[in-house]
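# nightly structure sweep
# worker-07 picked up a monomer target from the shared queue
# config: single-sequence mode, recycle default, output format = structure tokens
# input follows
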Amino acid sequence: MPDTDGRHALHRVTLGAWGKAAASGARDLGPIVAVVAVFQLLVLREPFPDLGATMVGLAAVLVGLVLFIQGLKMALFPIGEGIAFEFARRGSVPLLLAFAFALGFGTTVAEPALLAVADEAARVRAESRGAGPESGADYALALRYTVAVSVGLSIMIGVIRIIRGWPIHRFIIGGYLVIVTLTPFAPRGIVGIAYDSGGVTTSTITVPLVAALGLGLSMSIKGRNPMVDGFGLIAFASLMPIVFVLVFGMVAG
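# output follows
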């Protein structure tokens, strides 16, 4: 006989988890909706252009947020931690570093925000120099690959830091000192792009995978504290592109 009681219990647990996720998503979305509504109705004193479409859009955002959060919990976080545990079990540092680089490079090179910034920077540069669209396309591609390589290397460095147990603040302070040193020598037109590139590289896919990799690795290495050693990879991924793009601007002009 099928275990109907067990399936019903599992069904109730699943519905309860999704219900909690929906309630949490509504709480997260509530302040944003309240701010927009207050400014639209009380400050600007204008009605919403299409209230029906707005409500449907808000419902879609809520559903998407719930699905995304649950997807992270059910798939990306377990995958990232599982990969870290497996690499630690095998004891293969070169394979772990190769995976860290590939993860950073692969998720960054196709990041939509980076594509938008690189294309816009290339367009403005080409217009200012009177160059054709081909020149702009080459510049955008070079900028994208520069940022992607920097993120791959930054995650590699972060993984080495976790393995060795080095304190993170030395790397962060040193990295920003390098940025401050390079900024006066970089072309003025690249400085803003370089600083923005540090923010567009941490996407919704990269962040959970990289965070799970760091936590899983720190939990699988004896003597490491996940709260101390497991976090910080995202900071590396945000800092290193600034350095690389500043240097890229100094080389490419």
